[in-house]
Amino acid sequence: MPVHRVLLCTPRDQFCSTQKGIEPMERNELIQAVDFVIHERRSIRQYTDEPVSEEDLRMILEAARQAPSGENAQPWRFIVVKDPETRKLLGAIGAGGSGRRFTAEFVTKQMHERFKGLEDEEKRKAVFEKLTSGNVSAFLADAPVDIVVCGKKKVWDLPYDTSAAIENMLLMATALGLGTCWVIAPCIDIRDEERIKRLLDVPEDYKVISVISVGHPTRPHRPRPRLSLHELVHAEKWGTPYYKEEEA
């Protein structure tokens, strides 16, 4: 499949706090590149066998390192997992977590509400079976690289800080022409989290937050629908749209 890599040619040392070194044309190109990457990002669950280069992996992790955190606590830690057997175990743990979560949604009718717009009965049945089986998260075994995101338990801002680091990784991977998926299924159940901690020797004072799969997509993926700004943004107080429907 064709791979698009976004190349930002402005020297890194020009990006000071005031960004004085960026000419108008360079700034426009930078804005367009960032906007492109944000809109191009997809959650990818199918990968080729092509390995992720060490150069690309380092850029992804460097992007995470540069994320903001409360009081600059930098509570995140990352475990790069390439070993096939370990990835297989992560996939199994993820499948178990997804299966239990979606089975609970099925039993409580939440899943029926989520997919009420899917009128084709056979397609709806197939979706239910895929989700409740847990196979939706088993792909962690097939990605060339899994990055396990951990964080210091004692840091109050941990969920927000690590989320910023994760989004940086997803966007950098997209710019590099790679696919990623942010997976929380292996970490929702405390029992699954403990399994991962034992598997990877994670210290007791750290929490496993998520697993990020990284690899080369097998095919292009279409964008998923997004709500309009008219539906999302309120003016001054809740209830008054900031944007008119035709503007959004």
What is the fold named in CATH at topology level? NADH Oxidase
Number of DSSP-assigned strands: 4
Class from helix and strand fractions:
alpha+beta
CATH architectural type? 3-Layer(aba) Sandwich
Instruction: Provide mean pLDDT, rounded.
Output: 86
> In one word, what is the shape?
globular
- Helix percentage range: 40-55%
Largest sheet: 4 strands, antiparallel
- Residue stretches low in confidence (pLDDT < 50, at least 5 long) are 13-18
Number of helical runs? 9
- Topology order in helix (H) and strand (E) letters: HHEHHHEHEHHEH
**Domain module tally:** 1
Please state the CA-atom Rg, rounded to the nearest Å. 20 Å
Q: What would you say this structure looks like, in words?
A:
The chain is an alpha+beta fold. It has one domain: NADH Oxidase, CATH 3.40.109. The chain has nine helices and four strands; from the N terminus they run H-H-E-H-H-H-E-H-E-H-H-E-H. The protein has helices at residues 24-40, 54-65, 84-107, 110-114, 121-133, 158-175, 185-188, 190-200, 229-232, and strands spanning 76-81, 145-152, 179-183, 206-215. Strands 1-2-4-3 form a four-stranded antiparallel sheet, with helices on both faces. The two termini are 33 Å apart.
